[in-house]
Amino acid sequence: MAYSNFSFNLAGLVAVAAAAGYASSARAQDGEKPVLTIYTYESFVPEWGPGPKIEAAFEAKCECDLQFEGLADGVAILNRLKLEGASSPADAVIGLTTDLVPEAKATGLFASSETDLSPLALPVDYNDDTFVPFDYSYLAVMVDTEEAGDWPKSLNALVTGDSEQKIAIEDPRTSTPGLGFLLWMKAVYGEDAKAKWEELSDRILTVTPGWSEAYGLFTSGEVPLVVSYSTSPAYHMIEEETERYTAAEFSEGLYLQIEVAGMLEGTDTPELARKFLDFILTEDFQSVIPTGNWAYPVIDGVDLPEAFDKLIEVENPLYIDPETVAENRQAWTQEWLEALGR
Amino acid sequence: MARDRTIRLILGVAAALLLTGFLAGGFVVLAAGTDGELPLLAILTDPYLRGVTLFTLEQAALSTLLSVIGAIPLASALHRSRFPGRSVVLRIFLLPQALPVLVGALAIITVWGRNGVVADVGAFLGLPRFSIYGLSGILIAHVFFNLPLAARLMIAALDDVPKESWKLAGQLSFSPWTTFRLVEWPAIRTVLPAAASLIFMLCATSFTIVLVLGGGPGATTLEVAIYQTLRYEFDPGRAVALSLLQIGLTAIILTVANRLGGSDAGQFGLGGRATRWDRAGPIRRGYDAVVLILGLFFVLSPFVAIVLAGITADLWRLLSEAAVLDALFTSLWVAFTSGLLALFLSVLILLGVEALASAERRMTLTMPLPRRALEIAASLVLVVPPVVVGAGWFLGLREVTSVFSAAPYIVVLTNMAMAVPFAVRILGPGFAAAHNRYEKLADSLGMTGFRRFRLLDWPALRRPVGLAFALAIAISLGDLGAIALFGNREFTTLPYLLYQRMGSYRTDDAAGLALILGVVCLALIWFAERTSAIEAKAK
Amino acid sequence: MSDPRPALKLDQAVFARDDWSVTLDLELMPGEWLALIGPSGAGKSTLMDMVAGFLPLTSGSISIAEEDVSGKGPSERPLSIVFQDNNLFPHLTVFQNVALGIAPNRRVAPHERGRIENILDTVGLGGKGGRKPHELSGGERQRAALARAFLRRQPLLLLDEPFASLGPALRRDMMKTLRQLRSEFTETPLTILMVTHHPEDARSYADRVAFLDQGRIAHVGPVENMLGEAAPEDVRRYLGSQDHSRRLDAI
Question: Residue A27 pLDDT more than 70?
Fold first, then answer.
C-alpha cells in the first residue's frame, strides 16, 4: 500500500514537472518582432543586473525582442562562439574583456562595428573597429577593515609586507580577475615578476578557480584581503549600507579592465545588431552600468551615485595592450606556475 | 529460460552501451572536431602534466585511505550505539553528495579555516592557528564529503551480520577487540573495495575543493588541467587526450585494486536495527562516546555552519521570488526525471550482470571478464569529465537543433549517468543474492518474462530502491557540472542560481539557497528511505 | 516441584513489549532435560532469550543455580547456547571456532589444545579442525557448535532448535552425540533446556516436556503424560498439526 502511494506520488510529480517544462519552453517567444540574441555573462542577466533595464530601454526604441543569454563569463562566451562557429544563433555578444579581443578577432566570426567611438571617455586611448567598450573597472585589492587592521598601500607593500596578513587570489588559468592580477604584477615588475610572485607566495592564503570562491572567503571573514575590483565597495555601501569593505589604493596604480561588445558576421539582423552597438554609447545604456554592473560608464556625463565618490580615483591606470597579452599569456602563466607551484 | 536470459543480457548490454555511448558521444564529436591526432604522447611526456597526474593520484589515494579508515571506528560506534536522532544522523550522512561543492568547501572553512571554530578553540587554548590550505585542507574536505558515504556502506554491512553472531559475542563474553576482530571487521571488510573504489573515483576528479583548499597551483588535478585546456586554450584534442588519460589511469588502478581487494560489491543499506549484546563496559562506552562526539562533530559541523549562514538570509523573500521558485521547480523535475532514468538503466544493467553471473554459475561462461566489464562500464562514469562530454554534445547538437532547447535533455541525461554507479551499487548486492537463491526455483517453475521480473527481481529491488532513488535525486540536485555548460535564462536549477548569486556579491542569498537546497534534499532522502522502510516492514 | 536447589528457576518472569507479553514460571532440577514445545509465536524463543539474558525482564526474576541473574548480561550467566544456524564464524576454522569456548579473547594455550582436539574427536570432527565452516555439512557445523558449548563447562545448556534443519537420521545421530558429550564432558549434572519442533526428540531423550502457548506455560509434566495418550487436549491438537505438516513435508 505504502509503495503504491509512493509510485503514485512519483508519477504525479513527473507529470506535473513535464507540464511545467513544456510551459516554460512555450513562453520563450515574444510575438512576431525580430529577435536580437545577445550572449553575455551570467551576472549581466538577473533582475538586479544591468540586463533587464537595458533590454527595456532598447526595446522601447527598436521594435524588436532583445534576448540576453547568460554564460559563465567572457571566456565561456568566446568558447561558445568557437563551438558554434558561423551557425551561432547569437547576433552579438557583450561581456568580453579587451584581453580576449585578439583571440576573438582571430576566429573571424566578428563583423566591424562602424560605431562612432568619439563619445568614449576611457582612461586610456581606445580605437578598435570591431569591439565597442561598454564599461570599465579597475582591479583592486579589497580590504576587510574589521579583520585587517592596517593594510598595504602599494603593490610593493603587498609583496614584501607581513605574510601573516593573507590574501586570496584567483587562478589566471581559470578566471578573468586572476589573469588581470597576473598582468598587473607584470605591468609593475616586468622581468622581476617571477621573483616577486615567489616573494608574495607566502602571503597567498589560497588560489581559487574564480572570483566567487575568493570573494566568498573574503566576506565570510576567512581572509582580510582579496583581489577584486575598485568598484566592489560601492555594492556594499549601496546595497548593504556598510563601509566595512574598502579597496586599497596602490601607489603604483591599479590595473584597468575594459569590457567590450561586438556583433557577429553571421547575424541575420545586422542592422539591429549595429543599432545595439550604437546604443551602448548612449546615456540610456550607460546610466544602468554603475549600480547594475558595479563598474564605470565609458562616456562622460553619466550621473554616478554618491557612493562612487568614495571610491579610489585612479591617477595612473596600468594596462598592457591586448596583442602583447595574447602573445605572452602562456609564457607568463608558466612563469606564475613555476613561482607558486612548490 | 535461455531465451529469457539472452533478452536480459541484451537489455543489460544495451543499457551499458547507451550509458557509455552517451559519454563517448561527447568525446567522439569533440575529437572529430580536431585536425590531426590526439596528442597522447605529448601528454605522457610533459613534466608539468606528470606532476599534475602524480598529485591527482596522491591526493585521491590519501583521501580514500583516510575516509575509509576514519569511517571504520565511526561506523562501528554508530552501529552499537543508540541515541536520539541517530536515524536523522544516518540520513544526513547522504547529504554531502547533494551539496554543491563550493557550499561544502566554504562550510568546511567556517569550521576549519583560519578564523574557523576549530582555530578559535585552539587559540583559546593557546595553540598556534594552523592553516588548512594545502594537502591537509584537500584531505579534510574530501574526508568530509566521503567518510559518511563509507560509514553508511559499513553500517549496512554490519546490519547484515546474522543476529546469532551478536548473541554469541555476548554469550561467549567477547572483549570489544574480539568483537571487532571476529564480527565487525569481517563484515566491514566486505564493503571496503566498493567504498574505496567509489571514493577514489570521486576524489580523483575533484576540482573546486582542490583549487580552493589546495592553496596554490602546486595542487592541481587532471580535472583542472582538462578544464583549463578546454576553456582557456580551447584545445579539444588535448582535452580529450587528458580525459582518456584520467579514465585509463583510474580504470587500471581500480582493476588492480579489485584484484588485490576482492569483489567491489557493496551496498548502502537502510540502517536497520541489529540488536547487540556484546559487553558494554565503561571503557568502551567512553570510547564510543569519544568517537561519536569527534566523528559527528566532524561530519555535522559544516552542516551547522550552512544552517547558521542560511537562516541569516531573508528566506521568505527568497522563497517568494519567482526566479527561486522556478529554479526549485526545475531542479525538482530534473532530479526526479534523471533519478527515475538512472534507476531504470541501473536495473537493466543489473539484469545483464545477473544473466552473466548465472552463466558463470552454470559453467557456460568460464571467465568473469564480461560481467566485470559491464560493472566497470557502470562505474567509470564517475571519472569522465562532464565538461568534455558536455562540450562534445554541444558541438554535435548544434548541427541538428537549437542547443538551448536540447539543454534540459542533456542535463537530465548527464545527471542520470552520474547516478548510475551509485544506484548499481545500492541495488546490486540484494539483487545478486536473490538470484543466487531463487534462480533455480524460478527456472524449475518455468517462470519467464515479466512474471519472472515481478516475482524474482522486483522483490529484491523493492527495499533498496527508495534509497537508490534518494541518492540519485541528491546527486542531481547538487550537480553543477552539466548545468554550468547548458544552463540559461529559461533553464536554471538551484545550484546554478546559487552560483549566479555568489557571482554578483549576493552571498546572503547564496547561503539561503544552500539551506533551501539542503532542506529539500534531506526531505527527499527522508521520504524515500521512510517509504521503502515502511514497505519492507509491511512485507 | 519444591526441591530447594533448582538449577534454573523462572519466578513470574515477565517480558512485555507493545501489546505482547510472556509470563513464565518454571523450575528445572540439576541434571534435568526439559523439552520446550509449542506453536510458533507461543514465546519459545522469547523464553530462551530471557534465560540467556538477551531480553531484559519487565518484572519477576530468573535464577540459575540459586543465583539471581535477572540483572546480569549474557556473558555473566553460567550457561551455553547452540542456535539453529550461524553458530560458527565463517572466516574462522572449526578449531578456532571451538576454541572460542575457552579462550574467546586470547590465544589458545598449548595445554588447552589437547582438550579441544579431544572434544573434536568426540563429536566426530577429528582431523577437520583446520577446515572452514563452509567446507562442512550442516550436521558437522552443529557438531562443532555442540563441542564449543560443552567446552565451556557451564551447568546449563540452552538448545534453540539446534537440529531443526537436519533430516531424521542425522538428528538421531546428533542426539546420540549430545548424550555422549553430556556423560563424558560434564562433571556436575548438566541441565538442558531444548526448544524443538520434533516430539520424537523429546520422547527419546527429555525428562519432562513443557508446552508453551500464547506466552504462558500451559502444561508441564513428564514425557509420557505430555506426549502419550493422556496428553492434554491442546497439546494433542498441536502434536496432530505437527504430524500433519511433517507428512506434507515428506511428500
Answer: no
Of A21, A48, A83, the CB nearest to B333: A21
Of the listed ranges A26-35, A97-106, B378-387, C145-154, the one predicted with least confidence: A26-35
B/e letters for B223-247, b = 16+ CB within 10 Å, e = fewer, are bbbbbbbbbbebebbbbbbbbbbbb
Tell me, yes or no, whether chains A and C touch by having 3 or more C-beta pairs under 8 A: no
Give the containing element (helix H, strand E) for C227. Answer: helix C223-227
Smallest CA–CA separation between A159 and chain B, in Å?
16
Q: What is the mean pLDDT of each run of 10 residues along chain B (539 residues)?
A: 78 87 83 71 80 91 95 92 84 81 84 84 80 88 92 84 87 88 88 85 85 81 82 78 88 77 48 61 85 91 90 88 90 91 92 84 73 78 80 76 76 88 81 77 75 78 79 83 69 84 82 89 79 57
How close, in Å, is residue B318 to chain C by CA atoms? 46
Tell me which chain C residues have a C-beta less than 8 angstroms from the C-beta of B162: 85-86
Residue of C nearest to B161 (CA): C86
* Residue B172 with chain C: CB contacts under 8 Å: 75, 100-101, 104, 152
| Residue, of B49 and A132, whose pLDDT is higher | A132
Q: How distant is the alpha carbon of residue B338 from its chain centre?
A: 15
Task: Look at B162 and C53 and tell me if their CB atoms are within 8 Å.
Answer: no
Give the HSE-up count for residue C160: Cα atoms under 13 Å, Cβ half-sphere: 23
pTM of this structure: 0.82
Show the domain range for A92.
35-136+257-310
Q: Domain spanning B38-309: which CATH class is it, in words?
A: mainly alpha
Distances (CA, A) of A80 to A110, A302, C251: 14, 33, 75
- Phi first, then psi, for residue C119 (nearest 5°) are -70, -30
What ipTM, to 2 d.p.? 0.85
Which CATH number is C1-70+197-251 given? 3.40.50.300
For residues C33 and C192, give the distance between their C-alpha atoms in angstroms, rounded to a whole number: 5
Q: Which residue has the cell 596554490?
A: B216
> Is the torsion defined by CA of A183, A187, A193, A197 positive or negative?
negative
Is CATH 1.10.3470.10 the right assignment for the domain spanning C79-153+156-189?
no
Domain boundaries defined on chain B: 1-37+317-539, 38-309
Nearest CA in chain B to A214: B212
Q: Look at C105 and B178 and tell me if their CB atoms are within 8 Å.
A: yes
Residues ≥6 apart with Cβ < 8 Å to B307: B515, B518
Do residue C81 and residue B167 have CB atoms under 8 angstroms apart?
Answer: yes
When CB atoms are compared, the residue of A46, A87, A206 closest to B398 is A87
Which residue in the set B171, B177, B182 is minimally distant from C89, CB to CB?
Answer: B182
